[in-house]
Specification:
Blueprint lengths: L12 E5 L3 H12 L4 E6 L15 H4 L1 E4 L2 E5 L6 H6 L3 E5 L5 H4 L4 E4 L16 E5 L11 E3 L10 E2 L22 E3 L4 E4 L7 E2 L4 E5 L2 E4 L4 E6 L5 E2 L4 E6 L12 H18 L2
Parallel strand pairs: 1-2, 1-6, 2-5, 4-5, 6-7, 7-8
Antiparallel strand pairs: 3-4, 8-9, 10-17, 11-13, 11-16, 12-15, 13-14, 15-17
Helix pairs in contact: 1-5
Amino acid sequence: MVIHQAKPLRDLIVAIKGAGDLASGLAWRLYQARIRRIYMLEVPKPLSVRRRVAFSEAVYDGLKTVEGVTAQRIDDNANLQSAWSKGHIAVRVDPKGNTIHEWPPNVLVDAIMAKKNLGTRIEDAPLVIGLGPGFTADKDVHRIIETHRGSNLGRLIDRGCALPDTAIPGTVGGYSSERLLRSPASGVFQTTHRIGEQVQKGETVAMVNGQVLKTAIDGVIRGLIRPGIDVTEGLKVGDIDPRGPKVDCDLISDKARALGGALLEAILHAFNR
Protein backbone atom coordinates (compact mmCIF):
# COMPACT_ATOMS: atom_id res chain seq x y z
CA MET A 1 0.00 0.00 0.00
CA VAL A 2 1.51 3.32 -1.07
CA ILE A 3 2.23 5.83 1.71
CA HIS A 4 3.92 9.19 1.13
CA GLN A 5 5.29 11.98 3.21
CA ALA A 6 2.59 14.20 4.68
CA LYS A 7 1.74 17.13 2.43
CA PRO A 8 -0.81 19.95 2.81
CA LEU A 9 -3.85 18.94 0.80
CA ARG A 10 -4.21 22.42 -0.70
CA ASP A 11 -0.76 21.99 -2.31
CA LEU A 12 -1.54 18.69 -4.03
CA ILE A 13 -1.82 18.64 -7.80
CA VAL A 14 -4.38 16.10 -9.02
CA ALA A 15 -4.64 15.03 -12.65
CA ILE A 16 -7.72 13.16 -13.84
CA LYS A 17 -7.87 11.40 -17.18
CA GLY A 18 -11.40 11.87 -18.46
CA ALA A 19 -14.01 14.46 -17.55
CA GLY A 20 -17.28 12.54 -17.93
CA ASP A 21 -19.92 12.38 -15.21
CA LEU A 22 -18.06 9.93 -12.95
CA ALA A 23 -14.73 11.71 -13.35
CA SER A 24 -16.51 15.00 -12.68
CA GLY A 25 -17.97 13.57 -9.48
CA LEU A 26 -14.44 12.74 -8.35
CA ALA A 27 -13.18 16.25 -9.11
CA TRP A 28 -16.21 17.86 -7.47
CA ARG A 29 -15.70 15.84 -4.27
CA LEU A 30 -12.03 16.79 -4.05
CA TYR A 31 -12.88 20.44 -4.67
CA GLN A 32 -15.31 20.38 -1.74
CA ALA A 33 -12.46 19.03 0.41
CA ARG A 34 -10.35 22.04 -0.68
CA ILE A 35 -8.13 20.02 -2.98
CA ARG A 36 -8.43 22.45 -5.86
CA ARG A 37 -5.31 22.25 -7.99
CA ILE A 38 -7.04 19.88 -10.39
CA TYR A 39 -6.69 19.43 -14.12
CA MET A 40 -8.68 17.03 -16.28
CA LEU A 41 -7.63 15.64 -19.66
CA GLU A 42 -10.13 14.96 -22.44
CA VAL A 43 -10.47 13.97 -26.09
CA PRO A 44 -11.32 16.59 -28.75
CA LYS A 45 -14.99 15.51 -28.97
CA PRO A 46 -16.17 14.06 -25.65
CA LEU A 47 -19.17 11.72 -25.78
CA SER A 48 -20.50 12.27 -22.27
CA VAL A 49 -24.09 11.08 -21.97
CA ARG A 50 -24.86 12.72 -18.61
CA ARG A 51 -23.34 15.95 -19.86
CA ARG A 52 -25.37 18.23 -17.58
CA VAL A 53 -23.08 16.99 -14.78
CA ALA A 54 -19.89 16.51 -16.81
CA PHE A 55 -16.99 18.94 -16.84
CA SER A 56 -16.17 17.62 -20.33
CA GLU A 57 -18.71 20.13 -21.63
CA ALA A 58 -16.10 22.82 -21.03
CA VAL A 59 -14.33 21.45 -24.11
CA TYR A 60 -17.25 22.72 -26.22
CA ASP A 61 -18.43 25.75 -24.24
CA GLY A 62 -15.29 27.05 -22.54
CA LEU A 63 -16.84 26.84 -19.07
CA LYS A 64 -19.02 24.26 -17.34
CA THR A 65 -20.49 24.54 -13.84
CA VAL A 66 -21.67 21.48 -11.93
CA GLU A 67 -23.31 22.02 -8.54
CA GLY A 68 -21.53 25.31 -7.97
CA VAL A 69 -18.06 24.21 -9.16
CA THR A 70 -16.78 25.57 -12.48
CA ALA A 71 -14.39 23.95 -14.92
CA GLN A 72 -12.56 26.00 -17.52
CA ARG A 73 -11.09 24.83 -20.80
CA ILE A 74 -7.45 25.75 -21.20
CA ASP A 75 -5.74 25.58 -24.57
CA ASP A 76 -2.18 25.43 -23.28
CA ASN A 77 -0.50 24.71 -19.97
CA ALA A 78 0.52 28.34 -19.53
CA ASN A 79 -3.11 29.02 -18.57
CA LEU A 80 -3.31 26.29 -15.96
CA GLN A 81 -2.28 28.46 -13.03
CA SER A 82 -4.64 31.20 -14.22
CA ALA A 83 -7.61 28.81 -14.15
CA TRP A 84 -6.70 27.71 -10.61
CA SER A 85 -6.36 31.33 -9.46
CA LYS A 86 -9.99 31.87 -10.52
CA GLY A 87 -11.07 28.88 -8.45
CA HIS A 88 -11.69 26.81 -11.57
CA ILE A 89 -10.87 23.22 -12.40
CA ALA A 90 -8.83 23.13 -15.61
CA VAL A 91 -9.91 20.97 -18.57
CA ARG A 92 -7.57 20.47 -21.49
CA VAL A 93 -7.88 18.50 -24.70
CA ASP A 94 -4.90 16.21 -24.28
CA PRO A 95 -5.69 12.55 -25.00
CA LYS A 96 -1.98 11.64 -25.01
CA GLY A 97 -1.46 13.03 -21.51
CA ASN A 98 1.42 15.38 -22.31
CA THR A 99 0.28 17.71 -19.53
CA ILE A 100 1.25 15.04 -17.00
CA HIS A 101 4.90 15.53 -17.98
CA GLU A 102 4.72 19.33 -18.07
CA TRP A 103 2.77 19.65 -14.79
CA PRO A 104 3.67 16.49 -12.84
CA PRO A 105 0.80 15.63 -10.47
CA ASN A 106 1.00 14.22 -6.97
CA VAL A 107 -2.06 12.14 -7.78
CA LEU A 108 -3.07 10.72 -11.15
CA VAL A 109 -6.52 9.18 -11.61
CA ASP A 110 -7.46 7.21 -14.71
CA ALA A 111 -11.22 7.75 -14.92
CA ILE A 112 -11.64 7.16 -18.65
CA MET A 113 -13.78 4.08 -17.92
CA ALA A 114 -12.47 2.31 -21.02
CA LYS A 115 -12.58 -1.09 -19.25
CA LYS A 116 -8.92 -1.46 -20.19
CA ASN A 117 -5.69 0.39 -19.51
CA LEU A 118 -4.95 2.81 -22.34
CA GLY A 119 -1.45 3.69 -21.14
CA THR A 120 -1.52 4.66 -17.46
CA ARG A 121 1.60 3.54 -15.59
CA ILE A 122 2.30 3.23 -11.89
CA GLU A 123 5.38 5.44 -12.40
CA ASP A 124 3.29 8.37 -13.70
CA ALA A 125 2.77 9.93 -10.25
CA PRO A 126 3.48 9.28 -6.56
CA LEU A 127 -0.11 8.03 -6.24
CA VAL A 128 -1.79 6.48 -9.30
CA ILE A 129 -5.38 5.30 -9.07
CA GLY A 130 -7.51 3.43 -11.60
CA LEU A 131 -11.28 3.57 -11.74
CA GLY A 132 -12.99 0.22 -12.32
CA PRO A 133 -11.88 -2.79 -14.37
CA GLY A 134 -8.89 -2.81 -16.69
CA PHE A 135 -6.12 -2.24 -14.15
CA THR A 136 -4.04 -4.39 -11.81
CA ALA A 137 -3.31 -2.83 -8.43
CA ASP A 138 0.37 -2.80 -7.45
CA LYS A 139 1.30 -3.24 -11.12
CA ASP A 140 -0.45 -0.67 -13.38
CA VAL A 141 -1.68 1.54 -10.54
CA HIS A 142 -1.20 1.78 -6.78
CA ARG A 143 -4.88 1.37 -5.97
CA ILE A 144 -8.15 0.70 -7.77
CA ILE A 145 -11.59 2.05 -6.89
CA GLU A 146 -14.36 -0.51 -7.36
CA THR A 147 -17.12 0.87 -9.61
CA HIS A 148 -19.52 -2.09 -9.62
CA ARG A 149 -22.74 -1.23 -7.80
CA GLY A 150 -23.37 -3.18 -4.60
CA SER A 151 -21.75 -3.53 -1.21
CA ASN A 152 -18.25 -3.14 -2.71
CA LEU A 153 -18.94 0.11 -4.57
CA GLY A 154 -16.13 2.53 -3.72
CA ARG A 155 -13.93 -0.12 -2.10
CA LEU A 156 -10.19 0.54 -2.43
CA ILE A 157 -8.27 -2.38 -3.92
CA ASP A 158 -4.55 -2.69 -3.12
CA ARG A 159 -3.84 -5.92 -4.98
CA GLY A 160 -5.51 -7.56 -7.92
CA CYS A 161 -8.31 -6.19 -10.07
CA ALA A 162 -11.79 -4.72 -9.83
CA LEU A 163 -14.79 -6.87 -10.65
CA PRO A 164 -15.06 -7.50 -14.41
CA ASP A 165 -17.43 -5.44 -16.52
CA THR A 166 -20.78 -7.20 -16.92
CA ALA A 167 -21.97 -4.87 -19.70
CA ILE A 168 -25.32 -4.81 -17.86
CA PRO A 169 -26.31 -1.38 -16.47
CA GLY A 170 -27.61 -1.00 -12.94
CA THR A 171 -31.32 -1.41 -12.32
CA VAL A 172 -33.35 1.77 -11.86
CA GLY A 173 -37.09 1.62 -11.30
CA GLY A 174 -37.09 -2.03 -12.31
CA TYR A 175 -35.33 -1.45 -15.64
CA SER A 176 -31.75 -2.19 -16.66
CA SER A 177 -30.66 -2.46 -20.31
CA GLU A 178 -34.03 -1.03 -21.41
CA ARG A 179 -32.97 2.34 -20.01
CA LEU A 180 -30.12 2.77 -22.46
CA LEU A 181 -30.29 4.43 -25.83
CA ARG A 182 -27.80 2.97 -28.30
CA SER A 183 -27.07 4.23 -31.77
CA PRO A 184 -28.91 2.19 -34.45
CA ALA A 185 -26.16 2.85 -37.00
CA SER A 186 -22.86 4.58 -37.62
CA GLY A 187 -23.06 8.19 -38.71
CA VAL A 188 -23.95 11.63 -37.38
CA PHE A 189 -26.16 11.69 -34.29
CA GLN A 190 -29.17 13.98 -34.78
CA THR A 191 -31.80 14.92 -32.22
CA THR A 192 -34.03 17.81 -31.22
CA HIS A 193 -34.72 16.32 -27.77
CA ARG A 194 -33.06 17.62 -24.64
CA ILE A 195 -31.97 16.24 -21.32
CA GLY A 196 -34.79 16.56 -18.78
CA GLU A 197 -37.63 15.99 -21.26
CA GLN A 198 -40.32 13.42 -20.54
CA VAL A 199 -40.68 10.74 -23.23
CA GLN A 200 -43.01 7.81 -23.86
CA LYS A 201 -42.24 4.22 -24.81
CA GLY A 202 -41.79 3.91 -28.57
CA GLU A 203 -41.09 7.63 -29.06
CA THR A 204 -38.45 8.57 -31.62
CA VAL A 205 -35.73 10.54 -29.85
CA ALA A 206 -32.92 10.59 -32.41
CA MET A 207 -31.82 9.61 -35.89
CA VAL A 208 -28.50 8.30 -37.21
CA ASN A 209 -27.81 7.83 -40.90
CA GLY A 210 -31.51 7.68 -41.68
CA GLN A 211 -32.32 5.14 -38.96
CA VAL A 212 -34.52 6.10 -36.04
CA LEU A 213 -33.79 5.54 -32.36
CA LYS A 214 -36.85 4.88 -30.22
CA THR A 215 -37.29 4.59 -26.48
CA ALA A 216 -38.09 1.22 -24.88
CA ILE A 217 -39.67 2.69 -21.73
CA ASP A 218 -41.43 5.78 -20.40
CA GLY A 219 -39.33 8.21 -18.42
CA VAL A 220 -37.14 11.29 -18.39
CA ILE A 221 -34.13 11.75 -20.65
CA ARG A 222 -31.39 11.76 -18.01
CA GLY A 223 -28.53 11.79 -20.48
CA LEU A 224 -28.05 12.44 -24.19
CA ILE A 225 -24.90 13.15 -26.19
CA ARG A 226 -24.60 16.33 -28.19
CA PRO A 227 -26.21 16.36 -31.65
CA GLY A 228 -23.94 16.58 -34.66
CA ILE A 229 -21.32 14.14 -33.36
CA ASP A 230 -20.12 11.11 -35.28
CA VAL A 231 -21.07 7.85 -33.56
CA THR A 232 -20.66 4.15 -34.18
CA GLU A 233 -23.41 1.55 -34.24
CA GLY A 234 -24.28 0.31 -30.76
CA LEU A 235 -22.64 3.24 -28.97
CA LYS A 236 -24.44 4.41 -25.85
CA VAL A 237 -25.90 7.80 -26.75
CA GLY A 238 -28.58 8.31 -24.11
CA ASP A 239 -30.20 7.21 -20.88
CA ILE A 240 -33.87 7.15 -19.86
CA ASP A 241 -34.75 7.33 -16.17
CA PRO A 242 -38.10 5.62 -15.47
CA ARG A 243 -38.59 7.52 -12.21
CA GLY A 244 -40.02 10.42 -14.18
CA PRO A 245 -40.23 14.14 -13.38
CA LYS A 246 -38.82 13.81 -9.84
CA VAL A 247 -35.37 13.10 -11.36
CA ASP A 248 -33.00 16.08 -11.16
CA CYS A 249 -30.66 15.84 -14.14
CA ASP A 250 -28.38 18.55 -12.74
CA LEU A 251 -27.30 16.56 -9.67
CA ILE A 252 -24.22 14.37 -9.46
CA SER A 253 -25.19 10.71 -9.13
CA ASP A 254 -24.96 8.74 -5.91
CA LYS A 255 -22.40 6.49 -7.62
CA ALA A 256 -20.15 9.40 -8.58
CA ARG A 257 -20.32 10.79 -5.03
CA ALA A 258 -19.37 7.39 -3.60
CA LEU A 259 -16.40 7.06 -5.94
CA GLY A 260 -15.32 10.60 -5.08
CA GLY A 261 -15.38 9.71 -1.39
CA ALA A 262 -13.18 6.68 -2.08
CA LEU A 263 -10.68 8.83 -3.96
CA LEU A 264 -10.56 11.30 -1.09
CA GLU A 265 -9.95 8.41 1.32
CA ALA A 266 -7.03 7.17 -0.79
CA ILE A 267 -5.46 10.63 -0.94
CA LEU A 268 -5.84 11.21 2.80
CA HIS A 269 -4.27 7.84 3.53
CA ALA A 270 -1.31 8.56 1.27
CA PHE A 271 -0.54 12.18 2.13
CA ASN A 272 -2.34 13.41 5.27
CA ARG A 273 -0.69 11.81 8.30
